[in-house]
Amino acid sequence: MAHKIFIIEDDESILYGLQEKFTSDGYEVEISSADEDIEELLSRVKKIQPNYVILDLLLPKHDGLEVLKRLRNDSELADTQVLIFTDLSDEDSKSRSIGLGANYYFLKSEMDIYEFADKVESIISEKRVNDDDENDLVME
Hints:
This protein is of the alpha/beta class. The chain has helices at residues 12-24, 38-48, 64-73, 91-99, 113-132, and strands at 4-8, 28-32, 52-55, 81-86, 104-107. The chain has a five-stranded parallel sheet, sandwiched between helices. Helix 3 links the parallel strand 3 and strand 4.
């Protein structure tokens, strides 16, 4: 079964670039430019039940941190892996994101979308290995 990725990003070149990259690599991808109201956005995410959400913090209609908070407070989405991909490089944004439950925090200024997509795919691959590993608690 293909992993599902939901991308919430208002920059169309990033949004469609990531969509094309992940789709061509065999992932099921849903996208949002975050122009709908927050309830509609969250409803779409719930309907898809993605394994991963890629979330920008700077969105036209929403505070990305509020979207993250709402994802984490929803019992159906609480375990979804959330990867922040943003221009916000300040420590406060990063610590608040992690505090609200983001699994990863990446800066757009440090990589292009293809490098970011490779990192996401690496995270997914590592999670597959760990999920299949019966010796999760063994430390080497």
